[in-house]
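User: quick one, fold this
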Amino acid sequence: MSTQAATPAVPTPAAAAPAGQEPAARALSYAGRTLFRNGRQHQIIAGAIHYFRVHPEQWQDRIDRLVALGVNTLDTYVAWNFHQPEKGVAPDFTGWRDLARFITMAGDAGLDVIVRPGPYICAEWDNGGFPAWAISGRDMALRSSDPRFTAVVERWFDALLPVIAPLQAANGGPVVAVQVENEYGSYGDDQEYLRWNRAALRARGITEMLFTADGGTDYFLDGGALPDTWAAATLGSRGDESDAVWERRRPGEPFFTVEFWNGWFDHWGEDHHTRSSTEAAAEAAKILDVGGSICLYMAHGGTNFGLASGANHDGALQPTVTSYDSDAPIAEDGALTAKFHAMREVFLAAQGREPEPVPAALLEPAAVLPEAAVALEAGTGLLDFVRAVEPVRSVKPLSFENLGLDRGLVHYSATAVLPRGDGTIKLRGLHDRAYVWVDGTFVGVLTDATGADGLTVQGTGAPAALEILVENQGRINYGPLFGQGKGILDGVLVNQRYVFHWEQRAVNLELPLERLLALDTGAGTGAGTATGAGASGFFHGEFHVDRPADTHLALPGFGKGMVWVNGFLLGRYWEIGPQHSLYVPAPLLREGPNALTVLELEHGGEGAQLLAAAQLGSTHATHVEDLG
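Assistant:
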């Protein structure tokens, strides 16, 4: 019997007019290779800012800085898992998640807005923006016309698009364009799915210009472009060469680089990437000089707060750091960089605008706290903490998805007979990083690259207590391994023999901190108890603030873990760098005492430091040939 799934029903578009021409109320249109806005010749000069990477009390400040950059448009992705992290709970569009407020603020500042709702966004964001629960079906074909996939996306679009539709230009709002999927030519070739995505947008009231976005070569266009929808490019160099490809492949369409990579992001264990301001500005000018439109990715990168940073994979997992500064024109803390001024000069010239001074208030550096040391006292040890979670029992190890856990930690425990003498503990299908104890003694670390090789341990031929703590370091956001699960996906071997009958304790680190600290009972007595510098587990401290201001938090002597400020999960840290400080925006602080909580997975230090400037690591210059 065939198990082929039925073809999904394609929604009837609300407006099925040809791209770029109808309806007349649409703000953007084109004829030949010329873009128009409300009938006037137009170039989009845009900058990307993601509302989910900027504290909402700083939205206005960052938008003001974007306006000063000389752009006419703001671009943002929408991260589904930011709005609906839990299955069965309605999407949240309030507070920090108030997308409509962010779009409206941009419009009030005089900017058009481009919205990129995905549902796949890449963006170096955990799982490419998808909640893990939505795509964890074993047989689901991701980013395809598989009805099991389109059904969950439809329910998300049913909630999201009514937020965006009223803000379109036709309704007096700032939204002038909406993207169909995202860089699909880098992933698949299901044109039926792209048409479904486009029709789903139209059926839910999106009437403004639609576009796709793909790399700047024939290869990416082959998989990701639609014949009757405006195709945009994503690239970091050779825009004039890509414009020639578009002139050949997409006759009659204006060239639009919706992602111009004027900087780059960082992985843990690599150098901090930078790009020459002069070179980046010159490459941007090439696109504008041929009449093309451009969007800086990123104009302001912001921060991967919490556990939201994603990962790439190239033989082994490459987790992305907490900072998303990206060497952008507007730095993570809002500072206007040399790249800001170089890009501004290019943008003003392209629009025939006379140079004018940047508002003085924007040139002033943000207020920062005085540098200070913060003493930290040890609390509950790591194993004592995770052992306090209620277990789930199974024969084979369960994955994060089996346990209903998106991000955080899973503690696995079982009894295994270790052969007398040398034996090897192997973890098949490990994702991502595992700390291993035998009878309460720490024996080593395994990763997705080394798990199958295993750890050599000494056994006595008697039963031993085996404990494995697995950390999800960020779900893959790009490439064919997108959607991969977390935890121990296959099993645990002692030499060639499987270990069965496990207890799993899922530790959701994104719960309110007070719920996590209910498991932190102070100095414990079992293995893994935090006893000070060198130990793993919780550390607590407090620092006084006279007046809230930005600061940069460093944890010298600490190994790897997560840190909270006043109960807010700031992000991950790791001694291997390149990032050695975490940005703490002023709105997270308060007058008087401020609480600092650290969960250290490897070895704690003696204290924290508040720094006046970011320490993002030694730099690696990204060159034009790296960003084609």
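User: anything notable?
Assistant: The first strand starts at residue 28 and ends at 31.
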